[in-house]
Structures are given as structure tokens and as C-alpha cells.
Write a structure and sequence with these properties.
globular, eight-stranded parallel beta barrel, alpha/beta, single chain, TIM Barrel, 8 strands
Length: 239
């Protein structure tokens, strides 16, 4: 099965839900919505619609990240060392609980943990990553992990196997290292403005056939149009 969608809603939910059946929620990364809001989102799309979501940045990113500008509550200076990089703090644990509550409201089955390029495979980071994923309550959720920066494929695969993670990746940038399903994030070759060609989409389809489930989430400027074109290609192959 190939599920196709976008990173974020490029159209109103009502319109988007008529054409595509999957979305990766971005707002949960910057600032999770209230549970009541997430429940409303769930009602605004068809029953078969699938949400996946990005874990709150307080888990993965330190307060030095520019993404914290979109955080509603300012982090006090004396607490800045308690957030991000999977630190074993009560603050990170609470951020995971908040993410988990929204995931339950949306009835999602997959949560993505996207790390910044500054999160490198250093000893402290590896220890914190292992501790977080070994102890985080999953409640039937699958975890996808997107490392960036100087992570070798060998180390990514080792950690994913050890910690029961799916390697989330742009397959045009590097091959996936491990996972019971594919989690493909399509950022655009060479940059956000890239439009995927028909040949690219054919290659993407071939990358999907080795797993029983592939999630293909477009994150480029023409993501909605490219997702629809890929949907049509998949339907033509499977009809």
C-alpha cells in the first residue's frame, strides 16, 4: 500500500481530504494545539483519512533553534538547558505527553521525530536518544526518526533496529536504513522550489514496492500538485 500526502495542509482540510488521504501535521512541531482543536480536525476529514504528526520541538530541538520563535511561551533563560536533544528531563517528558495527547485525539498511528543538523552522533546525544526511545510510552504508536547531518547509514540502521524506529528519509537524498514501512519525506532535489518530474515519480514508485506500506509525504513548493500526480500514477499502476 502506498499512502500519499503533504507535509502540512496546502489547501483547506475539506478540499484536501477529498483528494488525498494522508497528511503530516506540522503545527504539533511548533506548538501542539489543544486536544479540543485536534478533535475538531479529526471531524473535518473523512473517517478513512490518516494523520501522522511531528513531535513537539521541545523534545528534539534546543531553544537556540530559530523554530522556537513560533513557540507561544518564552523559555526562561535559567531553563534553556532542559529542552531538546532528547534530554532526560521532566520538561521533555511533559512535551512528549502533550504530543501523545494530540496523537490520540487525531487517532494517528505514527509520530515523526525530526532532528536538527546540530544534533550530531556524539556520545551524550546517543545516550539521551537511547534513553528517550527506550522509556517513552508508545501505546501502539510507531516512531519514525529523521536524523540530519553527519550520521552514517550504518549507525542509523543500528539505532533504528535497536530502538524499534523507522528511518524517515528523503529517498532521493539517501536510502532508508531500516523500518517495517517506508517513511519518505520529499523535500525537493536541490531545494524547496523543485518540481518532481514524471520520471522522478516513476522512480519513487519503484522505491515503494519493496515494503507492504510506504508513506510518501511531499514537502516542496509544488507539494500538492506533485502529490496528486503521484496519486494518479499509483492508481494507474494498481488498477
Amino acid at each position: 500500500m502506498i499512502q500519499i500526502g503533504c507535509c502540512g495542509f496546502p489547501k483547506a482540510k475539506l478540499i484536501y481530504g477529498r483528494e488525498l488521504k494522508l497528511v503530516e501535521v506540522q503545527k504539533t512541531f511548533y506548538q501542539p494545539p489543544k486536544v479540543e482543536t485536534a478533535l475538531r480536525w479529526r471531524k473535518e476529514v473523512p473517517e478513512s483519512f490518516q494523520f501522522v504528526l511531528k513531535a513537539w520541538q521541545l523534545i528534539t530541538h534546543t531553544p537556540s533553534s530559530p523554530t522556537y520563535r513560533r513557540l507561544r511561551v518564552k523559555i526562561p533563560d535559567d531553563k534553556r538547558n532542559r529542552y531538546g536533544s532528547f534530554r532526560p528531563t521532566e520538561d521533555v517528558r511533559e512535551a512528549w505527553i502533550r504530543t501523545q495527547e494530540v496523537a490520540q485525539a487525531l487517532r494517528t498511528e505514527i509520530v515523526l521525530f525530526q532532528c536538527p543538523a546540530s544534533f550530531q552522533p556524539e556520545e551524550e546525544n546517543l545516550a539521551q536518544l537511547r534513553e528517550f526511545f527506550r522509556t517513552a510510552e508508545r501505546e501502539n504508536l510507531s516512531f519514525a526518526w529523521e536524523p540530519r547531518g553527519r550520521w552514517s547509514g550504518e549507525l542509523i540502521g543500528k539505532l533504528c533496529r535497536e530502538l524499534n524506529l523507522v528511518h524517515a528519509v528523503d529517498p532521493f537524498a539517501r536510502p532508508p536504513q531500516h523500518g517495517k514501512f517506508n517513511y519518505f519525506r520529499l523535500h525537493g532535489m536541490g531545494g524547496y522550489r523543485y518540481r518532481y518530474s514524471d520520471e522522478d515519480l516513476e522512480k519513487l514508485y519503484q522505491m515503494c514496492v519493496d515494503k507492504p506500506l510506504s508513506l510518501c509525504l511531499f514537502n516542496n513548493m509544488t507539494r500538492y500538485q506533485d502529490a496528486l500526480r503521484f496519486r494518479d500514477l499509483v492508481e494507474s499502476r494498481e488498477s
